[in-house]
Amino acid sequence: MIYIKSAGEVEKMRQSGLILAECFEVIKPYIKPGIKTSELDKITKEHILSKGAKPSFLNYAGFPGSICASVNDVVIHGIPGSYELKEGDIISLDVGVLKDGFHTDACRTFAVGEISPEAKRLMDVTEQSFFEGMKYARFGERLFSISATIQDYVESNGFSIVRNYCGHGVGKNLHEDPEVPNYGVFGKGNRLMKNMTLAIEPMVNMGKPQTKTLSDGWTVVTADGKYAAHYENTIVITDGEPLILTMK
Question: Over the stretch 81-132, which tens digit does the pLDDT of each residue have?
Fold first, then answer.
């Protein structure tokens, strides 16, 4: 069941989203060679708590971190730990914030020092695919028009869409209906309604789309070992342009 938010609930999510947007501003200066992903987790957690909010991911279904820190060939759900970032790495930081009973969810992929031109292009295409999809995040449009537009943009640039993980509704629960795949048939899917809140999150592989899960039960990597990137925001459907809740 899709839960349509009230104006007051959207405002609560906006406040949660602003805290989340701040997390990326706070953490960006620390993303450099030599820092451990566990330190990035600690810095982000402390910022969230300082704002009277909670990290959505901590202990969610047993997840041990406050953020997902996914480096290079890790697509999603990387567990923060002892790994030290190296020059040329890329790292996706996926963050969730719970404030006043409502979650928001967002992700950014960052370069560690100088990265290869192809890694930079992967990051750029992944981010831009989100904004291409947003052109159809309009009241009355069909959900899968967002999905198909993301897919078309990514594949036309020579990269592949991860198919076994997707975006989702978000609100009182971190994961709500509907599922929002990053591929699909244009003009299909649920009609978008005002105050529907969605986490749209292209996950893009440099090589083939297949993934596998490591023995920790969480870490999802590309099957071919090539880099992956991830970009996500929580949005709300309005009468006009969609509002991105997790950007300032």
Answer: 999 999 999 999 999 999 999 999 999 999 999 999 999 999 999 999 999 9
Cβ-count burial of 117 within 10 angstroms (0-12 exposed, 13-18 middle, 19+ buried)? Answer: exposed
CA distance 136 to 145: 6
Domains of the chain: 7-244 (3.90.230.10)
For the CA atoms of 47, 48, 52, 57, the dihedral, rounded to the nearest 10 degrees, stands at: -160
CB 221 within 8 A of CB 73: yes
Cβ atoms of residues 92 and 230 within 8 Å: yes
**Contacts of residue 101, Cβ cutoff 8 Å, sequence gap at least 6:** 12, 172
Question: What would the pLDDT profile of 129-176 be if each residue is shown by its tens digit?
Answer: 999 999 999 999 999 999 999 999 999 999 999 999 999 999 999 999
Cβ-contact 35, 84 below 8 angstroms? yes
Q: Maximum distance among all alpha carbons in the chain? A: 48
Tokens of 89: 């790495």
Burial (Cβ within 10 Å: 0-12, 13-18, ≥19) of residue 67: buried
Are 18 and 248 within 8 A, CB to CB? Answer: yes
Task: Report which of 46, 69, 52, 107 is spatially closest to residue 247, judged by C-alpha positions.
Answer: 107
Helix (H, G, I), strand (E, B) or coil at 248: coil
Distance CA 152, CA 218 (A): 28
**Bridge pairing between strands 167-169 and 176-180:** antiparallel
- Eight-state DSSP code of residue 92: E
